[in-house]
Amino acid sequence: MAQCSNTTLDMLQWRLQSPVFPNNGIKGPFCCSFTINMPNPHEHRVVQAMNISGEHHSQNLRTNVVDSSIDGNKIVGDFNTRKPTINNVGNGRPHDEAVSIVQRSDHPAAIFRSPEKGTLGGYIARRLVQIGITDVFAVPGDSNLTLLDHLIAEPGLNLIGCCNELNAGYAADGYARSRGVGACVLTFTVGGLSALNAIAGAYSENLPLLCIVGGPNSNYYGANPCLHHTIGLPDFSQELRCFEPVTCHQAVVIDLEDAHEQIDAAIVTALRESKPVYILISSNLASIPHPSFIHKPIPFFLIPRKSNPMCLEAAVEAAAAFLNKAAKPVLVGGPKLRVAKACDAFVELADACDYALAVMPSAKGLVPENHRRFIGTYWGAVSTSICAEIVESADAYLCAGPILDDLTSVGYSFLFKKEKAVIVQPQRVVIGDGPTFGCVLMKGFLQSTCQKA
């Protein structure tokens, strides 16, 4: 049995045992037995695997072996054929499912460097924990393995291995909806481009998501050699250019001097704008100690946005006057309630004013459907029974966070009259065909309207 202390090899083992082994030219499910020949710990390793048809395959790997010293004893980890522990996620299916959990190991092999030597990989791991991320969705590849080692070593993180990058992106999307922010870790180009559609979806849905990609070795920049698993051009900006339209910020970390600043700027922008960001980490930088990472990073402090008080007061007065003169007003919730963090405020308004309450199809789940005033989903001709009749016969409606696209409006067939509506967007309020009030946050507007309606 081969000996190695690099947690990266545990990830490799998981990849070999997975029913899907993408991006390496090896097809078919694999049995658990394989060997790693390491006559010299600094030479290439050759992984030999046998699939169920008996065909042998081999792949050259370059990994770094790190010797850890505990209580004066030199520790060298065992690399065997056991599978990593699987958490009870979802229905707890066996390992032949698409998603597996790669947990942090308590084995000394998970220790990379002494605590006083901070690394970029450790810094990223701690930042993820600080913003509330406990699970990271990843597909291992040669350019992100060292970074994944550090994420695995962070006690507050679980690394969830996905069968492909698109799944990892959509898993992070769902995680962001539930937890407020999500993260996926991919490999360069072949991985990043595979997840592009999921990142674009998160952008359209206003979800803060960190797309972290392991990039080329920082020493390759300038020389720009042609690399494997790219589109074949000596140009490292190809993936970046693809991500620019669907992310609100891009950070390319190829120098440790400003790495912490770039990482923090990207995370803050994702949280502030509630949009995905793209972060590329050169493959050789994650484990290099640097003085800027020695100390534990100070938690983020985001200055909360506030409404312009005068605009808020004027908008509330105008909306209250508009609604109070109506005989049959209705509340309609839209999908932007979530990005404005105004779901609870919307329900509070429904409690206070006692109006009928409906939601658009893309806002299902944002408002409790057991609310005593809830009448269903408003979706034009295919609305919940009676819901369309109530909404469309109302003489005034307050729509909070609507998106009136062709799908939501059933081909723009809504019998929805703008002159009867108070449209509340995350930072703007429009009263019928009349005035528009900017610099007014939805949450504060709804809370203040509770006292007037």
Automatic annotation (TrEMBL):
Coiled coil: none annotated. Belongs to the TPP enzyme family. Gene3D superfamilies: 3.40.50.970, TPP-binding domain. Residues 316-432 form the Thiamine pyrophosphate enzyme central domain. Residues 119-228 form the Thiamine pyrophosphate enzyme N-terminal TPP-binding domain. Keywords: Decarboxylase, Lyase, Magnesium, Metal-binding, Thiamine pyrophosphate. GO terms for molecular function: metal ion binding; pyruvate decarboxylase activity. This is pyruvate decarboxylase. Homotetramer. Pfam families: TPP_enzyme_M, TPP_enzyme_N. It comes from Ilex paraguariensis (yerba mate). Its EC number is 4.1.1.1. Its cofactor is a metal cation; thiamine diphosphate. It catalyses: a 2-oxocarboxylate + H(+) = an aldehyde + CO2.
